[in-house]
Prior knowledge:
Elements: E1 2-3, H1 9-18, H2 24-34, H3 49-58, E2 59-60, E3 65-72, E4 75-81, E5 87-95, E6 98-102, E7 106-107, E8 125-126, H4 129-143, E9 147-152, H5 162-173, E10 185-189, H6 193-199, E11 207-211, H7 217-223, H8 232-246, E12 250-256, H9 264-274, E13 279-285, H10 299-311, E14 315-318, H11 335-340
Parallel strand pairs: 1-2, 6-9, 9-10, 10-11, 11-12, 12-13, 13-14
Antiparallel strand pairs: 3-4, 4-5, 5-6, 7-8
Helix pairs in contact: 1-2, 4-5, 6-8, 9-10
Bound molecules: S-adenosyl-L-homocysteine.
Amino acid sequence: MQSIYNLDFLEACTFFLEHGGKKFHAEVLLTWLYQKRITNYSEITNIKKELLKELAKNYQIKKLQVVKKEEEEDVAKYLFKLEDGEHIEAVLMRHDYGNSICISSQVGCNMGCRFCESGRRKKVRNLETYEMVLQVMQIEEDIHSRISHVVIMGIGEPFDNYDNVIRFLRIINYPKGMAIGSRHITVSTCGIIPKIEEFMNFPLQVNLAISLHASNDTLRNKLMPINKVYPIKDLIEILKKYSKKTGRRLTFEYILLEGVNDHKENALELASLIKGMNAYVNLIPYNETENIEFNRSKTVQIMKFYDILKKNKIHVTIRKEFGKNISAACGQLRSREEETI
Ligand code: SAH
């Protein structure tokens, strides 16, 4: 049976209209689900019994199983077991501006980025919408506190699971539900052009981050196979259109890999690529993993790279690191559990 957490507002409206209810029932239902956090339809006091019965016949209200939680000071990693026995992870980060979570969008990933641990296991399947929604909800419930920011930067390529991700965004943003502000939500993609094009027409002001990680095609082809399908020039062109159409600021993520993409020339090349765009670069210190041969750039090199971008009038930040000891860092999700479970 389908999960009730798969339903966005319009789909809930359709359900009620088709079952003799009214549109306003959708708002009522989503408020009970996401604000009052009911675990059984019988707790709903202001929808008729017959309609609740119909709901129960069509949609289950089950949660995911949390099988493990590892915690460090300001970060916690959650391991969830899905109904078919697969595992996914989400990471909670406590910032001074609020609680942020990084969620997964697929079981495994097909993008094959050379530096990324998550891609070592091929995609098994897309996550259903409810499996993304419940990562957010259940962590909120666990910490008894609101999550204000969501990033889709865990395992998987969100634009390879586009429809479910879009529905997920609508559900967590719904004002009478979880009400996570669209400007507090970030989708990160390796650059699937047709989906970026589609995303331009998505009405919510969600942030888009692009995993660039290289300043030219030769290098990017080596690091990220997707670049052979969607090369940098085409990617930048579509992103310029995207910015113009949406007015939203873009983030370029750039992992610094020692001796690979961290040279002065790379910084200059990167600056000229994105000059004039409404964008900023987020430099990511690489999280070294046992299985992959890349090394993190030295701090002085990171600072040099940063300075060159600054001098060239590019907005740039360096990512704060979380959860290194519990393998909660980017690209390291789940693989350790796979060996232990
Ligand atoms: N598929 C999406 C989202 C998941 S990856 C994407 O490509 O954007 C989230 C981010 O973590 C990406 O920028 C990815 O390149 C980065 N990442 C992967 N492995 C990493 C590692 N070991 N250290 C630092 N960042 C990493």
